[in-house]
UniProtKB/TrEMBL annotation:
Region spans: Disordered: 10-33
GO molecular function: electron transfer activity
Domain of life: Archaea
Domain named Electron transfer flavoprotein alpha/beta-subunit N-terminal: residues: 71-251
Full protein name: Electron transfer flavoprotein subunit alpha
Biased composition (Basic and acidic residues): 24-33
Length: 384
């Protein structure tokens, strides 16, 4: 129930429960004419693919409040190789820092090589904790982060939603004794300087907006793929700290890189297939479309669950978050749990027989029609 949900004794407080916002402005093709639809779609696909990635120009917003503490972004890395999500969230943290008229700082533990990158992606300042431990170790990194946070008292810390950073955020929140708002997808502030963090809840059906009114810093993990990095190169101040105690209860005996690359998350074009495909044999029609466009097939959860396609091709909340240039959803209804996985796609095209399907509220171009009629026509056209 809106405004009446809150965890007793927790430092964070849910202040609002609301439906996910509509983020796209769909253009729909409604005629019952598969050939016409294919022609229309070919044009839209061309437009979508011809648009080069617009360089995100950062426009500094007018401040709405003034806070004393800085905003921090924890820069996640493995063996000094950064995780891209750190730079994504830096752009949003930059905006929030400007709204709150404060400094944006990056916190880097053990990876001196990332200082310049942090400035490039928008930080004003870098806290560099010098350490010989270049690989994430929860004991050591929690200690490092807690020591600098207690010493410099930031207003808020943003963590990328990677596995290790999510762990680090929770153990540090306990150490610092503050609230952690997990898996956030959008942020806002008010004139009192209160930071509002919004995240999908109730299995993704609703969004919750949460504050941490009485504890500092506010700690947040941010979902990957939601924000786009900005380039805002400048030089800034570097504050070096040294960690004296590098004791850990963990001994890492061996370290292996995950060998399999995920073609789904790396592809610029993804053909998403849902239950509307009706049988596993029919997926070949989507594979054909993927072939002519040079893309790959991804699936909704029910298809992966039924074993119709490999689990690593599942798109959505419990599958992969993808950010292709073009996502074509075939027979996918557009459940929120699916949509969160494609919200970062530059263009979304949907083909669905049901005009009421929620995907039509969340696509750029949509064809109301039977995929078995439209897709073969589309393949014919694109093949030419
Ligand atoms: P449906 O909802 O059944 O939609 C099928 C669509 O096909 C319908 O809109 C129908 O109109 C259309 N259709 C039928 N015939 C045709 C035709 N001939 N031509 C064109 N269109 C046609 N789902 C995910 O996808 N990814 C996740 O990661 C995920 N995680 C979840 C996590 C949780 C905790 C929960 C509770 C659910 C999760 N789900 C996830 C499931 C999600 O809620 C939906 O059930 C699922 O996305 C629906 O898949 P669908 O769109 O393929 O099927």
């Amino acid at each position: 129930e809106p405004n009446k949900i809150g965890l007793a004794g927790s430092p964070t407080k849910v202040i609002k429960v609301h439906p996910p916002p509509k983020t796209r402005n769909p253009e729909l093709y409604k005629e019952k004419d598969p050939k016409g639809a294919a022609e229309w779609l070919t044009e839209k696909i061309k437009i979508s693919l011809s648009q080069t990635q617009e360089k995100i120009e950062y426009k500094k917003p007018e401040p709405v409040a003034k806070v004393n503490g800085e905003l921090w972004v924890y820069v996640d890395h493995i063996n000094e190789e950064p995780n891209e999500t750190s730079w994504e969230i830096m752009s949003e943290a930059r905006r929030i820092a400007d709204l709150l008229s404060t400094t944006l700082s990056a916190v880097i533990i053990g990876a001196d090589n990332l200082v310049e990158d942090a400035f490039e992606y928008g930080a004003d300042k870098v806290y560099l904790v010098k350490s010989n431990v270049k690989r994430y170790d929860n004991d050591i990194y929690t200690r490092a982060l807690s020591i600098v946070a207690k010493k410099y008292k930031p207003e808020a810390i943003f963590f990328p939603g990677t596995k290790s950073s999510r762990e680090l955020a929770s153990t540090s929140a306990i150490e610092i004794n503050t609230g952690l708002i997990a898996d956030c997808t959008s942020f806002d502030v008010d004139s009192k300087g209160i930071l509002y963090a919004t995240r999908p809840d109730f299995g993704g059906k609703e969004m919750s907006t949460i504050i941490c009114p009485n504890h500092r810093p506010v700690m947040m993990t941010v979902r990957s793929g939601v924000f786009k990095p900005i380039h805002n190169h400048k030089k800034g101040e570097i504050v070096e700290e040294k960690l004296d105690d590098e004791f850990s209860r963990y001994k890492i005996l061996d370290y292996r890189r995950k060998e399999k690359r995920n073609v789904l998350t790396e592809s610029d074009i993804v053909i998403g297939v849902g239950r509307g495909i009706k049988s596993p044999e029919n997926i070949k029609i989507a594979e054909e479309l993927a072939d002519v466009l040079g893309g790959v097939v991804g699936v909704s959860k029910p298809l992966a669950d039924m074993g119709w396609y490999p689990k690593d091709r599942q798109v959505g909340q419990t599958g992969n978050t993808i950010r292709p240039k073009l996502y074509i959803a075939l027979g996918i209804s557009g459940a929120v749990q699916h949509l969160v996985g494609i919200s970062g796609a530059r263009k979304i095209i949907a083909i669905n027989i049901d005009p009421e399907a929620p995907i039509f509220n969340n696509c750029d171009y949509g064809v109301i029609g039977d995929l078995f009629e439209v897709v073969p026509e589309l393949i014919k056209r694109l093949g030419k």
